[in-house]
Amino acid sequence: MLGNTKLVRLLQVFLGILLATILYWSLNKQFDHDELEVIHTSWKILQGEKIYVDFFQHHHPLLYYLLIPVIARFGENTTTLLITRVIVFCFFLAILAVTYLISIKVFSKEVGIISLVLLSTTFVFTTNAIELRPDVPQTLFNLFSILFLLLYLETKLLKYIVISGFSAGLAFLFLQKALFLIILVFALLLQLPRRNTSLIACSIYGFAICLVFGPYLLYLFVDNSLAAYFTFNWTLNAKFLDRDYPLNTLILTYRANAVLWLYYFLSLFSSKRILQSTLQVISFGLLVSIFILQKPHQQYFMPVIPLVAILSAHTIHTSFEGSSRRLLLVLFLAVVLPCYSLFAPVGSLNNTEQLEKIDFVLSITRPNDYVYDGNALFNVFRKDIDFFWYSVDKNDGLATYKSMSDYQYNIYESISTLKPKVISNYFIDNINDPRIVNSYTQSSRYSDLFIRQPEK
Questions:
Q1: Distance, CA of 24 to CA of 342 (rounded, Å)
Q2: Per-position DSSP letters for 268-289, written without gaps between them
């Protein structure tokens, strides 16, 4: 046992340095277009626009609604963007905390601290977990759901399965992919030894989920938005024309975190307790589920990696429990390459120019002006000229929806009719179209932006 040895204290100090570095990343890393999409979606709802009806969105909405008070309180400025990064960093810390609680519930405190070091140095996880995206709170409430499921399996107290279902419902309100965890939990509950017990647990778990998600479905029905919700959150995502393969990301993260994944896969072949086997089934099920999605991005791995870190940490700990030096060597090999990926770019992290561009657009426009962005890169707090305000690239959301319907999209007509104050050249095939070239002048500060000139 490691106990309270110098090695444990060393890992704690190392984790503190990691978290300080990750916080620096959080405040200085450039904003991904997904993050600006989140903030702009929240702003549009705050302006009275109806999600799925007045503008395109294909994710579940809870994060957008939670950010509305933040935007209302801090205003339409780039400081608000940085505040959202602080908020998401708190989500990240909460993920670490729940990961630790699961670790010590199933294994031990020593495994817990090792799992946090492994998780924090998993580059694919950490760089996405500090970005404002619904995957982050989804991952957090997935973990809460798993924690209380484990407590239920250990104690058979129904209050824990209620909390587990409630947490899963919240995760589902943040993002549809939480459905995979819900299915896995139902499958595990149905395998409980006593038939009556398994059916009762499943019923309570499902009822708790419905308590969370049911009211939102009722709201959509009353608001006449239910059809649009299903179209853009389920049908369109299922038919997405653009495709990618998760194996590429798996290979990427395996190269950076080979020790983590090696010991995780080894952990799948040994299980003596129900709590450990539960983590194995859920983690492997979530990993497999990524491979059935149309266009899996790196952040899709977020819900499974905390479980991978826990199981990997346990296997490493038990393999080298009798030798602290060997354990330290393996952990060094596990984190040295990921740490290089985290620490090396620190000096070059800078989102100042990106924020200045957003401020520039705000400074030359008024609250009621229209702006065409095309890729959620700089228009955060101004109106858009079409239902599809992003995802307009080839085979993206717009193309997918056009393949499902007779939707008409003409960027030149929209610009001519609504006269946006600022447009970009993103996804405009002919920037020399008369409806553009006769009314817009290229910005001297940003070559991709064009500013509307006063009409003569």
A1: 10
A2: TT---SHHHHHHHHHHHHHHHH
pLDDT band, very low/low/confident/very high, at 1 (cuts 50, 70, 90): very low
DSSP at 442: E
Q: Are 37 and 376 within 8 A, CB to CB?
A: yes
Instruction: Give the pairing type, strands 422-424 and 449-452.
Output: antiparallel
Q: Directed axis angle between helix 274-290 and helix 305-319, to 10°?
A: 130
Mean pLDDT of all residues in 421-440: 95
How far is residue 154's CA from residue 157's CA, in Å, rounded to a whole number? 8
CB–CB of 214/234 below 8 Å? no
Q: How far is CA 49 from the centre of its chain?
A: 23
How far apart CA 422 and CA 360 sit, in angstroms, is 11
Q: What's the whole-model pTM score?
A: 0.94
Alpha carbon 420 to its chain centroid, in Å, reads: 31
**In sequence order, what are the residues at sequence separation of 6 or more whose Cβ sits closer than 8 angstroms to the Cβ of residue 87?**
70, 132
Enumerate residues 6+ apart whose C-beta is below 8 A from 395: 240, 241, 242
Alpha helices (H) in 107-177, listed in sequence order: 109-120, 123-129, 135-155, 158-174
User: How big is the chain by its Cα radius of gyration, in Å?
Assistant: 24
Q: What are the tokens at 259?
A: 């020790």
How many CB atoms are located within 10 Å of the residue 454 CB? 5
Which 3 state secondary structure label does DSSP give 51? strand
Q: ∠ at Cα 11 (7, 14), nearest 5°?
A: 135
Secondary structure percentages of the chain, helix, strand, coil, to 5: 65, 5, 30
How many residues does the structure list for the chain?
Answer: 456
Residue range 18-58, pLDDT digits in tens: 999 999 999 999 999 999 999 999 999 999 999 999 999 99
CB 149 within 8 A of CB 161: yes
Mean pLDDT of all residues in the chain?
A: 93
- Cα(182)–Cα(405) distance, integer angstroms: 32
Cα–Cα distance, 342 to 257 (Å, whole number): 13
